[in-house]
Amino acid sequence: MNLPESYIPILIQAGVAIGFVAVSLLGAHFLGPRQKKGNSVKNQSWECGVPVEGNARTPFSIKYFLTAVLFVLFDIEIVFFYPYAVNFREFGFEGFLAVLTFVAIFFVGFIYVWKRGALDWDK
User: Fold this and answer.
1) 19 near 8, Cβ under 8 Å?
2) Does the structure show a pLDDT above 80 at 110?
3) Torsions phi, psi of 88, nearest 5?
4) What phi and psi, each to the nearest 5 degrees, are found at residue 4?
5) 47 pairs with which residues across the strands?
6) What does pTM read for this prediction?
7) Closest alpha carbon to 106 in 84, 63, 66, 75
8) Cα(8)–Cα(63) distance, rounded to whole angstroms?
9) pLDDT for 52-72, tens place per residue?
10) 60 three-class SS
11) Sign, CA torsion 101/106/111/112
12) What does the DSSP assignment read for 4-45?
């Protein structure tokens, strides 16, 4: 198998990444704390002496997760504006059109989310 020399660093990085994941998972499994089975007092939830209310596995509203995903999505959009803002003179009119297209795509997504009611907290 003859690989070009440019692939060797990529394969080394992939090997190191896979090795790190494997060592981390095996280390956590073998070196991590052991949980005792059963219903002992030691394994129960406890918060500063306040009696426990309900179950810790209570499901969250999907609105919480949708808001988090939307925040990340539009926050990442702002991150992509930084290189444009620093180099906008070098990009010229083509760069302006590219950024305008980028904003238009996100704006269409924002309108879609708005029309679907994802931003209505009362529902």
Assistant:
1) no
2) yes
3) -65, -30
4) -60, 150
5) 50
6) 0.46
7) 75
8) 45
9) 777 767 777 777 777 888 888
10) coil
11) positive
12) -GGGHHHHHHHHHHHHHHHHHHHHHHHHSPPPPPS--GGGS-
CB 119 within 8 A of CB 111: no
Apex 122 CA angle, 55 and 76, nearest 5? 85
User: Looking at this protein, which amino acid is placed at residue 86?
Assistant: V
Instruction: Decide if 72 contacts 79 (C-beta within 8 A).
Output: no
Residue 68 corresponds to which tokens in the numbers above? 């988090």
Collapsing DSSP states into helix, strand and coil, what is residue 42? helix
The string of pLDDT tens digits covering residues 75-101 is 888 888 888 888 888 988 998 999 999
Residue 12 CA to residue 9 CA, distance in Å, equals 5
